[in-house]
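In this supplementary section we document a worked example of the pipeline. Step one takes a protein sequence of length 341 as its only input; no multiple sequence alignment statistics are reported here. Step two produces a three-dimensional model, which step three serialises into structure tokens for compact storage. The input and output of this example are shown verbatim.
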Amino acid sequence: MVFSSLFFVFVFLPVSLAAYYLVPRRGRNLCLMLFSLVFYAWGEPVYVLLMLFAVCFDYAAGRLMERAKSPRGRKAVLAVAVCADLGMLGFFKYAGLFAQTAAALTGLPVPAPQVALPIGISFYTFESISYIVDVYRGDAPAQKNFVSFGTYLSLFPHLTAGPIIRYRDMAAQLEGRRPTKAQFCEGCRRFLLGMFKKVLLADQLAQIAQQVHWFGSPSVLSAWAGALAFTFQIYFDFAGYTDMAVGIGRMFGFILPENFDLPYISRSAREFWRRWHMTLGGWFRDYLYIPLGGNRCSRLKNIRNLAVVWVLTGLWHGASWNFALWGAYWGVLIICEKLFL
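The serialised model returned by step three reads:
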């Protein structure tokens, strides 16, 4: 189910909003969680079980973390939870890549598992990790209410295309949000803006880019037109979905983080990634780059930290070594800026 579909706009969203505001306030998280699971199961009924497993596992890990009395016990819970979350992501998203790579390197017939990629697993895995790390660091208390935690992890507005939500930013909203009429109207406006970007801009630009692609040997003018169309198509598509997600969140009383800030006016690679997919960049900064040492270390280690972050950023976008090279390309640009500019 996509936000721009007629069924979502005229059936699922109105019904879920009506149910949400009709139930008593204390039942709204449960209502929203159930609708989120229906939304997720609409496209992949089997993988809703995977989502429920993630909710149960990370909820239990948070409670165990809270009850662990020794630093060693807390670290053990952290290690097991993060490894389990990454293992689940690795199996469903990267097992095929690793099997193909092993077969190419060894010449042996390494079987690749034939599994579909669950919708949104890259997003909710990172959110699971942010939860357990935030609890470990003391940035947020462990969530005691299972339904509230399930609402955080399965919240359908951001499930398929972001933004990536950190638990510490959502903890207070899960229990204390008070939707207002002005907030609801702003959510409607933002949703319509996202719909405009997605349907009237991105989808039309995609047709131009696709037509140029099928030319085979396009003229210089056609090639530039196709390149520009594709450049703006991916921006309006992604930014449009984010606007719709933020708008839907506002309708339900949530303030979701912004994800784009006019990235194409950036004057450097570093500025571009401060404006493009901002929640992903923030996640890698706070949960990987800084724990590795960030820039408070020797220059050589700082280069290593940036290289690790950007290769993994590339792989997060897709299970292919092409994406790893794409991430490395951005890493080289940012390292050069840091060293020479």
